Amino acid sequence: xxxxxxxxxxxxxxxxxxxxxxxxxxxxxxxxxxxxxxxxxxxxxxxxxxxxxxxxxxxxxxxxxxxxxxxxxxxxxxxxxxxxxxxxxxxxxxxxxxxxxxxxxxxxxxxxxxxxxxxxxxxxxxxxxxxxxxxxxxxxxxxxxxxxxxxxxxxxxxxxxxxxxxxxxxxxxxxxxxxxxxxxxxxxxxxxxxxxxxxxxxxxxxxxxxxxxxxxxxxxxxxxxxxxxxxxxxxxxxxxxxxxxxxxxxxxxxxxxxxxxxxxxxxxxxxxxxxxxxxxxxxxxxxxxxxxxxxxxxxxxxxxxxxxxxxxxxxxxxxxxxxxxxxxxxxxxxxxxxxxxxxxxxxxxxxxxxxxxxxxxxxxxxxxxxxxxxxxxxxxxxxxxxxxxxxxxxxxxxxxxxxxxx
Length: 406
Fold this sequence. Notes:
By secondary structure, this protein is α/β, with parallel strands linked by helices. It is 41% helix and 16% strand. The chain contains 14 helices and 15 strands.
């Protein structure tokens, strides 16, 4: 396995670039994953060979670009086991995907007095769009509380459901403390109450297999950049029946069949939701990133990340002055912690001096930080390209910081 990881690390050019004279220990994958050569090459090859727009052109370069773009859509479909590419909408990322559901489905299905449920673990991207809808339509936005460990339990969901609950929007994996929610238990409970379910899979897509048919979620969103792909590209999955009912979120080119000055006939799925020239290079890069993940396999990814996370938890727990934040029942590749007497931002700056890249702050999850009574945490996150040396480098740097503040 060590030789496999060493060979894999060579595919990520960023890991070969020193930071402050130190080897780079990239422990900020929860913010964005590093990009392998194959993804970088796929993006560059599009711009070199067929930098044309898709769907509209009748010349060869446009046909080539369209073929690659739509092949990536098919890769996404297989990756999450959707029934049809009609259910795969390319967006700019998880944030836009959730905004589409809130803005389009919200105005179609929700009205004043209806409930939308989210959890205390949510990223701002799964909070703010619903607040917009609350202020615009008069819906009620309610939260499912986490327990002391940082879990969202089925009983907690049941207690918050009401006859007016129309939608439950949940993260699959918390970006702040690594909790993996028991979606296979939560989704049926929400459906039994008559609510649709949206899953924010931004943190989950690169570390656990996603099967939208098995989950039976109504919507699912994820971003390319956390999946070893480029920034500015993401996916909204929606059951075809729901997407067909929903009005378009944005107007412009490619989302239409015909336009007069008086009337517009909208395009078929999924193009109804893809107005304007799309991020073609991003979609192609995302498709190649999915191929990269499939080549490694989730069994290997989960085994490696779970081992690293357990090793890091043991190492951090043994350091005087380190306090772990959140002890979820099922944790993925994220650890949040604090250092006694050290602000997270100061810790982040000093860790960077030692070549250790972590995330410090509230992680776009301020309600969760408020629940813990903290301004923020230090967050280390792991991926397939990390190794034990990264953890050793983190521990050495933390010990140095502790000595500085003694």
